[in-house]
Write a structure and sequence with these properties.
28% of the residues lie in helices and 24% in strands. It has one domain (2-173): Aminopeptidase, CATH 3.40.630.30. Strand 3 and strand 4 (71-79) form a beta hairpin. It is an alpha+beta fold. Helix 1 (17-24) packs across helix 2.
């Protein structure tokens, strides 16, 4: 679907399920996502992305290295599904990489390509990303991508009890391009 210098972002395939769960279900990768989860949880995510792709023509696409075809994680544009989120139904930029790929610029490269795709195919929509405040790497990338923090869109995620450190989510928005 999208190719960059080093990456390919494409719709999910059945054979992505096993490496997705094995490579991205580590304590470090899931530190700000509620911890390691079972295979059914990861399969549900893949099912959701396949459904979003079928319905909307985009998703948080599977990410692979162009030259080797190695599965690296995902990046792309899903649809905000959290009912408590002020931007529910809007396109949501998301990414997740296997640990051994951190610090190589893959997330930024994939996110920049996804933003460009979103601007071309989803004009007028509020393209955003969310994380928890303690996930400095994630919101740091959002800032490096030129995204702006929008506190009026912050929300408490209903999957976490009040007082839980992962409950409060912060939201960044991709600014509209200059005309």
């Amino acid at each position: 679907m999208i190719e960059t210098e080093r990456l390919r972002l494409r719709p999910w395939r059945e054979e992505d399920r096993e490496p997705f769960c094995r490579l991205l279900n580590t304590p470090a990768v899931r530190e700000h996502l509620g911890g390691v989860a079972d295979r059914a949880f990861h399969d549900e995510f893949v099912d959701q992305q396949m459904a979003v792709q079928a319905e909307h023509g985009h998703s948080c696409w599977a990410m692979e290295e162009r030259d080797s075809g190695a599965f690296l994680g995902f990046c792309g544009i899903g649809v905000e599904r959290t009912d408590a989120a002020p931007l529910v139904g809007q396109p949501e930029l998301g990414w997740r990489l296997r640990e051994d790929c951190w610090g190589r610029g893959y997330a930024r490269e994939a996110a920049e390509a996804s933003i460009a795709w979103g601007r071309a195919h989803l004009p007028g929509r509020v393209l955003h990303a969310k994380t928890v405040e303690r996930n400095v790497r994630s919101w740091g990338l959002m800032e490096r991508l030129g995204m702006a923090r929008r506190p009026e869109f912050d929300f408490d995620h209903p999957l976490f009890e009040p007082g839980h450190p992962l409950r409060a989510h912060i939201v960044y928005v991709v600014p509209e391009p200059a005309r």
